[in-house]
Amino acid sequence: MAFKRDKKEEEDGGNQYQNLEKTSVLQEARTFNDTPVNPRKCIHILTKILYMINQGEQLSTAEATETFFAMTKLFQSSDKIVRRMVYLGIKELSGIAKDVIIVTSSLTKDMTGKEDTYRAAAIRALCSITDVSMLQTIERYMKQAIVDKNPGISSAALVSCLHLCNSASATDVVKRSLNEIQEALNSDNVMVQYHALGLLFHLRKTDRLAVSKLVAKLTKSNMKSPFAVCMLIRMACKLLEEENIPRSESPLFEFVESCIRHKSETVVYEAAHAIVHLSGTGARHLAPAVSVLQLFCSSAKPTLRFAAVRTLNKVAMEHPSTVTACNLDLENLISDSNRSVATLAITTLLKTGSEASVDRLMKQIATFVNEISDEFKIVVVQAIRALCSKFPRKHSVLMNFLSGMLREEGGLEYKASIADTIIAIIEENPEAKETGLAHLCEFIEDCEHTSLTVRILHLLGKEGPRTKQPSRYIRFIYNRVILEGAVVRAAAVGAMAKYAAHCSMLTDSIKVLLKRCCLDVDDEVRDRATFYSQLLSSNNRQLITDYLSEPIHVSLPVLEKTCQDFVANPTKERINLSELPFDTDVKATHAESTRKNIVDKTIQPGMLLITKNIHFFCKIKKNVHYFFIYTVEPPVKTVDIQTLPNLISLNAGTLFKSTKPTMLTEPETEYVVRCIKHVFSEHLVLQFEITNTLDDQILENISIELDISEGFCLLDEVKIASLKYQETENVYVYLKFPDHPVESIASFTAKMKFIVKDCDPITGEVQEGDGYLEDYRLEDVEVTLKDQMMKVKCGNWDTLWEEAQSICHEVQETFALPLTDDGLMYTIKQIMLFLGMGASNNSDSVQPPNKSSHTVNLAGLMRGNHKVLALAKLALSDNSVTIQLTVRTMDERVADLVVSTLD
């Protein structure tokens, strides 16, 4: 029944191997062990295995080895098809399975046997499993096979030797068979001669003199194989490119030109193709090749017509006048039944035609352009682009034709080529600007390709404000904010801001539109709108000019390289933009004026800039500026950190973060102690805020004794000399973080030590006596990850996550937390609480609330300027929430620290 179903699927045009399962197919391979062997069944299973491997299915070493040894049992079968399938299977599994060399003796036996059907396939399989150390054992057999009378065996041996030459040590062994290869080169069989020449060239290609001698010798002989002659032409052309003598004096060029008169059409075309593609070939040398290609244009064979027109199209790019003689033949091909031939013919005519023929050619193209594939449509578009440069007065006709093509169905590459052409026309011909922009505005109304829409919006923002009626484009741009995805909305916001910067009459209206965008659900759109609104509302023309009207034209590749070097080798000196070269596309006068505006501007890669309470991280990559606006957790109001005693002597650097106060005692106790942690890049300052609530005691010489965890280093301590009733003073403990970030998570046992002196509750006078020493146990002081991490909300988290894949270390772990009544929301809050990171893209909200799975996008900035991204995938189970946490950051140790926090 299964066989009948497969047969029916085959008759219906289905693929019976389409839905194969690896496990079931490998189990079927056990059939190979059956006795007697069922050839038909084994052939079917072998076909499945080969199909899976060729479709990219990955087999483990154990699976491949088991299948391989099961396959070797089929050597007992005398069925020719089974044996040939076994050879193919051995070749495919030889790079995966272990101990494949065990079948060497069986393959050698088949290779030297009397059954020619086995010998060629056995040679190919044997060479695929033989390593260099065992190559000498089969060297004698390979030499015999190369000169075998059976051409199939000889070709198999030559090709196998060619594959063996990928190893340098194996090449030396193959070179010992040069006499046999030379003998095969004189074979009457076309394929043997071709393969022998290919192997000879491969062995001698590093020796230019040897290759020259080989070519010189063979050009004087009469080779029977057209394939070998084609290879000889390519070898001659390679030598011609290295020669410095004129073409007319070169015997190699004379040989290539003589091949145009060869009896084989394959050789004739190869020679014409070679002459056309040789560098430095003039019109006089091209004439014979063009004449041959012109004859091929009227051939009855579609392949020859296609090859001829395609090559003439190449010639027309550099020597259009040479191809003009073929215009009549090319016009006859416009109506060719093969649309590929017709497309190439029309595009060649576009390159060689006159201005008067443009309208007629456009009408002819319109009759068949819908019938060809995108690949050839792109060729047509490229030809039209060249025509626009050649005949600028025809821009209206050509642009109308292009706009019609834009409205038709097509892929991204095809639509992008049309858009590129329209943009090129706009840049080259000022008269076509408004017409071209209008066509592009209509196109983005229905454009399905995000990247293309973004590019057009950027062009509208650049060129639109400089047109006669800039307001006509605002509607098209704002429609993208209403109707499109987040990436397009962000680009539209940037384009609208350009109009507000250039056109004062539109500024107020655009401010209103930007304020609406500040309520967008996407972080990046909202952040860009906020940034541009703040910028426009500042009325600071210098800022507006620098960031909107005339942005900095520093060479972005140079800036990117400078930033990369700075990250690799940080220095105290910042990167000064005024010292970097400017983009060569910017006019010198504009560049000079811009340079004066940025003399005092500096930027550090990855630095956190704060301007008017807007926090943003500027990243520059591949000529694109990304502004990731951060919402940073508000600072804790504590004492001025610069006034801390002894801080300057520690050289701790800039304060990274201060935590909220943590109670170390109960509020009702006699002494109230709170701890505030001030985190620096490598240092930790613990501020113990102590209040005396006893009116009959005065505390003196107050200190905090900590049981310091391993890795931390105690640097200094500032004590309280005296503390009266209802007074609050601070003890400061200075620590240095461990070198390994994982050790920075710690818990310190804390104890307050002081001298107690009794006093009069009313007057406050101290009673006589030295007092007594007292210890007061406090709650443990915990240093957690959230103390060292700043919450960050990225506007373009997805882009950062993709970019981090190639440059960052990645650590992934799976955890389980108990399930609560609040479901996933409680777990998300707990994760953010433990990690101290912020959620981006509103991913901390679960919609609907009863959802069984959710993904949270997290971002943070750890002390030491370590940027951290994390992806938490949550799934509900019976009594727990399973969490898969993936962390990406530049420092692998930091990634381990983040993951270990949830452990």
Structure description:
With 903 residues, this protein is α+β, with helices and mostly antiparallel strands. Among the domains are: 457-551, no CATH class; 553-619, no CATH class; 641-783, Immunoglobulin-like, CATH 2.60.40; 789-901, TATA-Binding Protein, CATH 3.30.310.10. The protein contains 38 helices and 22 strands. Strand 7 (662-663) and strand 8 (671-679) form a beta hairpin. The protein is extended. It starts with a helix and ends with a helix.
SSE map:
Blueprint: H1 2-11, H2 22-28, H3 39-54, H4 61-72, H5 80-93, H6 104-111, H7 116-129, H8 135-146, H9 151-164, H10 168-175, H11 178-185, H12 190-204, H13 208-219, H14 226-242, H15 251-258, H16 265-277, H17 283-296, H18 302-318, H19 320-323, H20 327-332, H21 339-352, H22 358-366, H23 374-390, H24 395-406, H25 412-428, H26 433-444, H27 450-463, H28 474-483, H29 486-502, H30 504-517, H31 523-537, H32 541-549, H33 556-568, E1 575-576, H34 588-597, E2 602-603, E3 608-611, E4 614-621, E5 624-630, H35 647-650, E6 657-658, E7 662-663, E8 671-679, E9 683-692, E10 697-707, E11 713-718, E12 720-723, E13 728-736, E14 746-758, E15 772-777, E16 781-783, E17 789-791, H36 797-807, E18 809-818, H37 824-835, E19 838-840, E20 853-862, E21 866-876, E22 880-889, H38 892-901
Antiparallel strand pairs: 1-2, 3-4, 4-5, 6-8, 7-8, 8-9, 9-13, 10-12, 10-14, 11-13, 14-15, 14-16, 17-20, 18-22, 19-20, 20-21, 21-22
Helix pairs in contact: 2-3, 3-5, 4-5, 5-7, 6-7, 7-9, 8-9, 9-12, 11-12, 12-14, 13-14, 14-15, 14-16, 15-16, 16-17, 16-18, 17-18, 18-21, 21-22, 21-23, 23-25, 24-25, 24-26, 25-26, 26-27, 27-29, 28-29, 29-30, 29-31, 29-32, 30-31
